[in-house]
UniProtKB/TrEMBL annotation:
InterPro entries: MoaB/Mog-like_dom_sf (IPR036425), MoaB/Mog_dom (IPR001453), MoeA-like (IPR038987), MoeA_C_domain_IV (IPR005111), MoeA_C_domain_IV_sf (IPR036688), MoeA_linker/N (IPR005110), MoeA_linker/N_sf (IPR036135)
Name of the molecule in the record: Molybdopterin molybdenumtransferase
Catalytic reaction(s) noted: adenylyl-molybdopterin + molybdate = Mo-molybdopterin + AMP + H(+)
The protein's annotated pathway: Cofactor biosynthesis; molybdopterin biosynthesis
Protein family per UniProt: Belongs to the MoeA family.
Record bears the keyword S-adenosyl-L-methionine: no
Organism: Micromonospora rosaria
Domain (MoaB/Mog) ranges: 184-329
Top EC class, one word: transferase
GO cellular component: cytosol
Required cofactor(s): Mg(2+)
Upper lineage: Bacteria, Bacillati, Actinomycetota, Actinomycetes, Micromonosporales
Function: Catalyzes the insertion of molybdate into adenylated molybdopterin with the concomitant release of AMP.
Keyword NAD: no
Amino acid sequence: MQSASATEPLVAPPPAGWTEARSRVYAVGLAGALPATLRPLAEVDGHTLAEPLTTRTDLPAFPTSSVDGWAVRGEGPWRVVGRVLAGSAPPPLADDGSTVEIATGAMVPAGATAIVRVEESTRTPEGLVTGTPRPSPEWRLPGEEAAAGEELVPAGTPVDPALVGLAASCGQDSLWVRRPPRAALLVFGDELLTAGPPGAGRVRDALGPSVPAWLRRYGCQVRAADVVGPVADTLPAHVAALRTSLGTADLVCTTGGTMNGPVDHLHPALAALGADYVVNTVAVRPGFPMLLARVTSDDGRVRFVAGLPGNPQSAVVALVSLVAPLLAGLQGRPLPVLPHTTLAEPVPGRGRYTHLALARLDRVTGTAYPVRHVGSAMLRGLATADGFVVIAPDTSGEPGDRVPFVPLPLLPGERAT
């Protein structure tokens, strides 16, 4: 990785291969993973486990009735000697022919040999209980779900409501977690409109409204105040905007300015901030002029700048290629393993570049269909796609080929069907 002072331009390395770039960015993110903190269960939704979730006790911790009915000892009919409700520890059933009424979730008393369901029981005029227990026990045994100290969920797992509930059932009051990364967005380009239809040489900014939503789906916190732009097309404005955003964000995404045109000031601005490149351009189409740089503050804290191309689809390619693996590393999550899909139609290659081609999935057949309207400046195809099929360099995709698939991100906690 190359670094530069404010008076020396950054030395750009050659384009990284797409797979290499993805791995390199993840490793850098993992090396700079956000610190682990102990937080109460009420505050951990959306965080990431920094340590495995274990249970403090057997699950269940005691024999637990699965039904409403009668806990009986020996053969019937049975004489009623009490009632057991959830939340109490009953005395043992000491005598054959005795029973206690029991509620679902209540602790089964020692000495009970069976539970008779209430709907399958009868009370005699003398007050005795009759019925036939089912062959299988009607209670959950201690440790049936998990043994005390057992690891249930590994570190690096996103925390969602289901995991919070599991942690509570294990007796945990707090968890060691990593907070969601804080992200900001700087929109570059004097030609951009932020309202109304495009015209007279100016185009509507499509990334300012959409990139924060993508970042949230990758687990980031993005406030409205963290989205700034359009930033004036001058070097001082770029440096000032980057310096301000890096003061609070773990990751600053920028749109446009990743090349070396007359108003492309991102590279000089990074040099002025003393940044060093992690990746500068990736051999992928669309999205080639993407970058990730690292900025180390005086206190040693590392923050990142992701330069997204100005063309909207190319910007999303940069998000899935560089930003997604970086964020996985920062949160201490594993690098997502790409699923594979079967091509239903041909997908052309892009020579020595990896081709990320938008596609929709047929979840019944498990096949991928390329979509139309997929120019780097277009968003129509993206709006109907499920993700990108990956066509390796110097190859093309033919019907029936199995290829990697990069899914577009879901909402935090959402699971694919």
